[in-house]
Design brief:
The complex is a heterodimer of chains A (236) and B (188). Chain A has 236 residues and is mainly beta. Chain A contains 3 helices and 12 strands. In chain A, β9, α3 and β10 form a beta-alpha-beta unit. In chain B, strands 1, 2, 3, 4, 5, 6, 7, 8 and 9 form a 9-stranded mixed beta sheet that branches. Chain B is globular. The chains are: A mainly beta (236), B mainly beta (188). The structure holds fe (iii) ion.
Amino acid sequence: MTLHPRTRDQHPPAYAPGYKTSVPRSPKQALLAMGATATEQTGPVFGHSMLGELDSNLILNFTGEPAVGERIVVYGRVLDENGRPVPNALVEVWQANAGGRYRHKKDGYLAPLDPNFGGCGRVLTGEDGSYEFLTVKPGAYPWPNGPNDWRPAHIHYSLCGPSFGQRLITQMYFEGDPLIARCPIANTIANKADLDRLVAPLDMNRARPLDFLAYKFDIVLRGNRQTMFENKPEGM
Amino acid sequence: MVQPLEYLKETPSQTAGPYVHIGTTPNFIGNAGIYPEDLGLKPFPDDVAGEKIKVTGIVYDGTGTPLRDVLLESWQADASGTYGPGIQGWARLPANQDTGVWTLETVKPGAVGKMAPHIALWIVARGINVGLQTRMYFDGDDLTTDPVLARIEHKIRVPTLIAKSDGPGSWRFDIHLQGDGETIFFDM
Ligand SMILES: [Fe+3]
């Protein structure tokens, strides 16, 4: 995978004072930009045998009994910057339950835990870059930042493509959520058009009647896949 | 007008938030029962060739406070300087939730081409909007020909990338997100 330094304008800046925790955790010096070396171009290669059958089914993968909430499928494709599919990418997700509560000792929100919801899932993309999860729609939740900040419903995503330099963490939001425009974390992204790329549309064609709704979320990883011929060895 | 270039833009990053471990290392935080074990528990099988080493460190914020919620991932070559196969060379390093100390038990990597032995690190946490890339080298190695280190203009900052020995086979590598001794982070 050939990697050039990231195009930074679609990403949040490190220092985004509306999101208070970023203030002490943002580097102040400029990043050191250079072409990727073998270290960033290579990365761990995951195999389907590492995953279990229910890993992508968040409704059943905790206890085997169904979790409470609005049943949804989230599906999409992982592509590179040339629009080519990224097969065997590891897609990991985590989320709050339908009431907006995480299964974590630090989460003290009033909403109850669901005894049948663990809150994580993982899947490897297919040859066409596609993936899907069955889950419940997460609830919105309040968080300590401004005096009355609420996170819009969201699913956290972690992506491992073939190159370690492509590692990406992001969040998926849901079409039509009025909390997106008010969220200090969503709005660390400067341009509305870039934030819109994190908002998954409802897809009634993919929904299954009497069973689940569907949302589509495509993801683009940096870099462009090349053939072995194009992939010249570099001096470093 | 000209024809459009049909490239896609990388998906924007968002912070990993405070609960990254739910998704990446659920067993580590006590959410057992979903996966039999967490991915990236150790970078190599126990019988791998090479010098066994242990690296510890703390990630500090700009106030000098350890990040106890931080997750690091490491990626390195084996002792012969080769990447892979499979997931070998990759590990997940969740910090101790009380102390913030992260620990990597691995083998010392070999040089990769002209690059001196090094371990790449990727750092995410609440308040980090785009995952940070850095790398650690080893004090005492010949670093003079390394092409990455050679690109650093402010030589006074190079020591932020060099782990110090703190005992036989034991290395210390603290990371400072901000302030005095801010670690060099890469865009590569
Ligand atoms: Fe969240």
